[in-house]
């Protein structure tokens, strides 16, 4: 438990003389957290918090978000500073190890990761089992889960060295798995990784190159890819990270846990939003259609959301959205794309929504996915690859959080309770007597 837990809150149960004194836990920053573990023992009651909006499920030293102020810190470092000065591989080291690396440590870490980029040759066969038009996220769920059938030597979750090798394998192989999912979709030969290239550069190489001719990765696009990866590397206890932790709490192996995280990320309310934003922009089609679209969004019965807007934690601008919006202009400039109609539409939509009472009242601001789709499209990625790229980047966060959980002495199997509202106990009725 962090801090000395000197403060407490006392809850008394109406109509009884029972009460429970719950210690308050203080983190380094952020609100205090009531430790409710004794509540059931003291009062015989559970807490109710669907969506876990008020529940801390673990202690973590990795990522901090202040949603009201729009702050995101990785191991204490602001995302803006990391985006400007760092690289994805350095951020990966930071997230996994807690400190920025010395030059020799970084070199060693990079070498450690890069020497695991190849997939077991038999994994190639897996791809042939998918339909040609399989969504890359479907392929990733399957192939990443299947890694546990290939790397038996690093499955012992109680062995730190084994955990380290699995982490390296996952971070290193994810770009290869994602790039091959795309190559399979378009019927081109799989490109093997090149360990002389940087992490993001190698991914762009495997994604774009063909064996028939040399391919040079545009350094500006490699830097943009690296930046996108930094911005997506971790985000506290979001749905997919919580999924990884929950799966991991049972003792499941890391490959299986990350496959579970990929499945959770796929949904349009989470990582699938970047793909959904582009579909939405295409559907809106023109600036003149924005008012009609926004009326639909505001109509509760329509179930239409302004994709790329809103966040469970941020009630202010998502700091990642600001960084990616700037990068988006730079990449479009580099690619000579002037007046991209989708970007123009997105900018206008953002402007109108930010001044609309519905969004202002609900503190709905653009999130990272509002712009990531536009930048990825400009870089030549099909929409179906957007969430797969998110998964590649988030793997480092997932595996850091998973390792932290395994090392946490307070860790127990994740097992929420419920309010049961079904039928009370009753006796079985034989078929002929059912009214
Ligand atoms: N468009 C229209 N209304 C919205 C939106 C939106 N994008 N997001 C929230 N609302 C409304 C919601 O209907 C509710 O209204 P009311 O109070 O009248 O019932 C109010 O705002 C509060 O929203 P909520 O549903 O309680 O918020 P939540 O924390 O449960 O949901 C969210 C967060 C991200 C799932 C949601 O904002 C959303 O679906 N956004 C669109 C999808 C999206 O962009 N997701 C990416 C999130 S960032 C990257 C990531 O996590 O992967």
Describe the 3D structure:
The protein has 435 residues and is mainly alpha-helical. 49% of the residues lie in helices and 6% in strands. Strand 4 and strand 5 form a beta hairpin. It is globular, with a radius of gyration of 24 Å. Carboxymethyl coenzyme *A (CMC) binds next to helix 17.
Short description:
The chain is mainly α.
Figure out the total of helices.
18
Q: What sequence of helices (H) and strands (E) makes up the elements? A: EEEHEEEHHHHHHHHHHHHHHHHH
- Main beta-sheet strand count, sense and barrel state: 3 strands, antiparallel
| Secondary structural class | mainly alpha
Mean pLDDT: 94
Radius of gyration: 24 Å
Bound molecules: carboxymethyl coenzyme *A
Give the strand order, joined by hyphens, for the main sheet.
1-2-3
Report the portion of residues in β strands. 5-15%
Residue share in helix: 40-55%
Overall morphology = globular
Q: Give start-end ranges of low-pLDDT stretches.
A: none
Would you spell out the secondary-structure blueprint of this structure?
Blueprint: E1 8-12, E2 19-25, E3 33-34, H1 39-43, E4 63-66, E5 71-74, E6 77-78, H2 79-85, H3 88-97, H4 103-114, H5 123-128, H6 136-146, H7 160-186, H8 199-208, H9 219-232, H10 239-248, H11 254-265, H12 273-284, H13 290-298, H14 319-334, H15 341-354, H16 357-361, H17 368-378, H18 386-407
Antiparallel strand pairs: 1-2, 2-3, 4-5, 5-6
Helix pairs in contact: 3-18, 6-7, 6-11, 7-8, 7-18, 8-9, 9-14, 9-18, 10-11, 10-18, 11-18, 12-17, 14-17
Bound molecules: carboxymethyl coenzyme *A (CMC).
């Amino acid at each position: 438990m962090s801090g000395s837990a000197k403060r407490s809150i006392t809850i008394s149960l109406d109509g009884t003389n029972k009460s429970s004194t719950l210690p308050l836990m203080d983190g380094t920053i952020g609100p205090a957290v009531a430790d409710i573990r004794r509540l059931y023992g003291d009062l015989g009651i559970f807490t109710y918090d669907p969506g876990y909006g008020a529940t801390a499920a673990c202690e973590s030293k990795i990522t901090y978000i202040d949603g009201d102020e729009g702050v995101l810190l990785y191991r204490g470092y602001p995302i803006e500073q990391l985006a400007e000065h760092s690289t994805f591989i350095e951020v990966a080291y930071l997230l996994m190890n807690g400190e920025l690396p010395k030059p020799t440590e970084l070199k060693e870490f990079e070498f450690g990761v890069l020497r695991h980029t190849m997939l077991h040759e038999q994994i190639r066969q897996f791809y042939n089992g998918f339909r040609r038009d399989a969504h890359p996220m479907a392929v990733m769920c399957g192939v990443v889960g299947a890694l546990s059938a290939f790397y038996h030597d690093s499955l012992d979750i109680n062995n730190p060295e084994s955990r380290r090798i699995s982490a390296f394998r996952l971070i290193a192989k994810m770009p290869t798995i994602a790039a091959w999912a795309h190559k399979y979709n378009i019927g081109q030969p799989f490109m093997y990784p090149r360990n002389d290239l940087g992490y993001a550069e190698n991914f762009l190489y495997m994604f774009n190159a063909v064996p028939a001719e040399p391919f040079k990765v545009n350094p500006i696009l490699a830097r943009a890819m690296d930046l996108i990866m930094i911005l997506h590397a971790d985000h506290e206890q979001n749905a997919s990270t919580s999924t990884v932790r929950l799966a991991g709490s049972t003792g499941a192996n890391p490959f299986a846990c990350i496959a579970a995280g990929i499945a959770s990320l796929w949904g349009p309310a989470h990582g699938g939003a970047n793909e959904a934003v582009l579909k939405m922009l295409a559907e809106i089609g023109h600036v003149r259609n924005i008012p009609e679209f926004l009326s639909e969004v505001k109509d509760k019965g329509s179930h239409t959301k302004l994709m790329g807007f809103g966040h469970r934690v941020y009630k202010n601008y998502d700091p990642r959205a600001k960084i990616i919006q700037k990068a988006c202009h730079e990449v479009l400039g580099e690619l000579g794309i002037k007046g991209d109609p989708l970007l123009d539409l997105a900018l206008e939509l953002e402007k109108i929504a930010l001044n609309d009472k519905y969004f202002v009242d609900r503190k709905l601001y653009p999130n990272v996915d509002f712009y990531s789709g536009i930048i990825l499209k400009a870089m030549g990625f099909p929409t179906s690859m957007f969430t797969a790229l998110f998964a590649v980047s988030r793997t480092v966060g997932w595996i850091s959080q998973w390792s932290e959980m395994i090392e946490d002495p307070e860790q127990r199997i994740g097992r929420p309770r419920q309010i049961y509202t079904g039928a009370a106990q009753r006796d079985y009725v034989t078929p002929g007597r059912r009214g």
